[in-house]
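User: Here's a protein and a ligand (magnesium ion). What would the complex look like?
Assistant: Let me lay out the input and then the predicted complex.
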Amino acid sequence: ATPAATMVGTAIGARNGVLFKGGDVLERVKDVETVVFDKTGTLTKGEMTLTDVVAVGPAADGSGVVTADDETLDEDAVLRYAASAERNSEHPLARAIVAGAEGRGLDLADPEDFENVPGHGIRATVDGKTVLVGNRKLLSDAGVDPAPAEDALRDLEREGKTAMLVAVDGDLAGVVADADEIKESAAEAVAALRDRGATVHMITGDNERTARAVAEQVGIDPENVSAGVLPEDKADAVESLQADGTRVMMVGDGVNDAPALAAAYVGTALGSGTDVAIEAADVTLMRDDPLDVVKAIRISAGTLAKIK
Ligand code: ADP
Ligand code: MG
């Protein structure tokens, strides 16, 4: 493109909240063949709320778990342990658990020995007891069998919720679940990309069932969903899609997404995303709207010439 065309494209982008990091980026975007969306905060609003608390365990009537030292854990006790343990975590899942517990008027304890296990959950000491909050792998690695909670997990995950297991002093205690809302324009954006002939994928650290429930709601094929992807493996996932020369655009918002944004043919960050993601990206969408991915492609292709 001529320098004048580049200036016009950049200006139209800026007016539409689509920031291209230079003329070469503006040129490249139109050639994208596959678009990979991060789930949380990109296709969804990333505003988690606590929706469910379930006491699970040896007491089959659901009345609560009796731990080794005879403490009965009902739903409030499960939530209090989970929320107290999560107090030092900045993760949106953790913030929702703490807010939900406070909303229910629970008196939280001060955790000690807080430890983050990236991609899996957290561990902390609460009232002298070791509390785990996280996924199946977190518990099984610690020698706690998550199987008795499987029915509860399955039901919650089918609804697209992120369900987390809670263990107290080596006993499975229950499940807490957070839900996130899908962005209004997510399905329309996926449909518009597919209409243009692009293949649409989703990648997430969340579990398979939750990921598929969200994918179904936005119109992404189940075979194009990669779930349970650890932060350090997101870039590898993009690189394997690009191995045959396919031009991939990665769209994400988190610190977790930065290496994948850098690895992609085009990295697109959301304006509300973390600075690390924006720095690693080639394009920034100031409105956080998935439909602006389509706009970016149309501006690059010169088919969005009208300025409203
Ligand atoms: P995402 O890619 O969706 O942002 P993460 O890689 O941060 O997900 O986490 C993957 C999974 O690990 C979560 O779905 C959750 O099951 C578990 N997890 C991570 N952090 C926490 C936490 N602070 N508390 C509970 N569970 C967590
Ligand atoms: Mg995200």
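Summary: The first strand starts at residue 18 and ends at 20.
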